[in-house]
Write a structure and sequence with these properties.
Order of helices and strands: HEEHEEHHEHEHEHEH
Shape: globular
Largest sheet: 6 strands, mixed
Low-confidence stretches: none
Structural class: alpha/beta
Distance between the termini: 44 Å
Strand order of the largest sheet: 1-8-7-2-6-3
Strand content: 5-15%
Radius of gyration: 17 Å
């Protein structure tokens, strides 16, 4: 109930001040495991995406959001906990694998998981080469991947900015789902299969976002 109220309030604020243009929502399955794979331009991406998708989307977030002190720390901890995001300690040498294992549990419950295949926010606006974790999740969890292209969120909250600005022009486009079982030819080595699937996801995001794709 708290999550629904928070999502409703934030959705109203986002649509009033930012007026995002959302297309392709029909491509997001209404039930069953699904991976929402997006480009990453700004911190606010992790707020925009869960608000526009008509189902609960879980993200991985750095553990620092749960460990802050004072009023800001308590608000941050309450917000990320209420949104259902999963903390990950980036100092842990197994942080990457633990994140994938946590994400797999989300998919095995039949829920939606959000991921940024680039691994971090783009500093120069270009679309970076995707990490193969998204493909590992898709193949292991038997989950389709819905590619997403975000535009304009870097103007709302540029890298380094503490607070978002009421800049309109945000666009969120959801592409055609990619079924991992149909992309891998028989006899393909696992590592090669993951690379091919990841590259296909990034190619789809590239076509929708218009970003320069780093080779």
């Amino acid at each position: 109930m708290t999550y629904r109220i928070l999502k409703l309030v934030l959705s109203l604020l986002v649509y009033v001040f930012l007026r995002p243009q959302v297309t392709g929502l029909h491509n997001v399955p209404r039930r069953g495991p699904v991976i929402i794979a997006s480009n990453h331009l700004s911190f606010i991406d992790s707020i925009i995406l869960p608000l526009v998708v008509p189902r609960h989307v879980t993200f991985i977030a750095k553990a620092e959001y749960w460990t802050g002190r004072g009023l800001k720390g308590r608000v941050s901890r309450w917000f990320f906990t209420t949104m259902g995001h999963i903390p990950v300690d980036r100092e842990d040498p197994r942080a990457g694998q633990r994140s994938l294992e946590d994400a797999l549990q989300v998919l095995q419950r039949g829920d939606a998981f959000g991921i940024y295949p680039e691994g971090t926010r783009s500093r120069d606006g270009r679309l970076q080469k995707g990490h193969t974790g998204v493909a590992w999740l898709a193949l292991t969890g038997a989950a389709p991947v819905v590619p997403v292209a975000l535009r304009g969120t870097d103007k709302v909250q540029p890298v380094g900015a503490r607070l978002p600005r009421p800049v309109r022009g945000i666009r969120v486009e959801f592409g055609v789902p990619i079924d991992p079982s149909r992309q891998i030819a028989a006899g393909t080595r696992p590592a090669q299969a993951r690379r091919r699937l990841t590259d296909q996801v990034m190619s789809s995001i590239h076509e929708m976002s218009g970003q320069e794709l780093v080779a």
